[in-house]
Amino acid sequence: MPRYGRDFFAGQLEAVEGIVRAAKDEAVVVVTLYSPFMCAGHPTSDALVTAHLQQDPEKVRPALEIITESMLLFARECIRLGVDGFYASTQGGEAGRFDDPGIFEQYIRPYDLAVMAEINQACPFNILHVCDYERDYDDFTPFLDYPGDVVNCPLTLGGARISPKQAAQRFNRPYMGGMERKGVLATGTAEQIRQAATAVLREAPERFILGADCTVPSDTPWANLKTAIDTAHAFQNAR
Hints:
There is one protein chain. Helix content is 49%, strand content 13%. By secondary structure, it is an alpha/beta fold. It has a domain at 6-148: TIM Barrel (Alpha-Beta Barrel), CATH 3.20.20.210. Strands 1-2-3-4 form a four-stranded parallel sheet. The model has no long low-confidence stretch (mean pLDDT 96).
């Protein structure tokens, strides 16, 4: 696994610099940051990294250390450019991922926390994202003490639905989410989106940010997202 320097991230950092320059005066600027474990799967595959950690995790450790160094460099450059925080995405604790839970504790968690400690020390606002893009969860316990001012996680746990209030209570912090990334938010009409967003807002905890449960499909119309945002603003103003 190569150790990447600033040149490797130049395109992304140019985009971050432009967003900060254009929007920081009127909006919070938050950059998505994948965990070292997730990044290990980008040039290989999620299945391959999982299999290698199952087979011989000590041989995977040097790669995770190198990736962590690269991610810290990227995060520090973003901080230098003036971002307000990060959307810190993590995986590895899903149901059935590893036969031995010690793999998560020894080979995923330490590198997650190394990056998260850096961004939480430097930034005023960070979001913890527990990602179910690859697999589902039956327990959020491995992530409950992860840092982050807000949590964004799936509302399905062990095959059963939980509410935004329950998610906020489990993580003891405000919750962001409530809308399925591939549901009406991505494919519905404006009225369907308004109804779905309003239903979520009515059952939401006091401290809550309406959002998707993960990355929305790239072809999701901007108008759909704007409808959900406008619905949240109207709901808040009517309270």
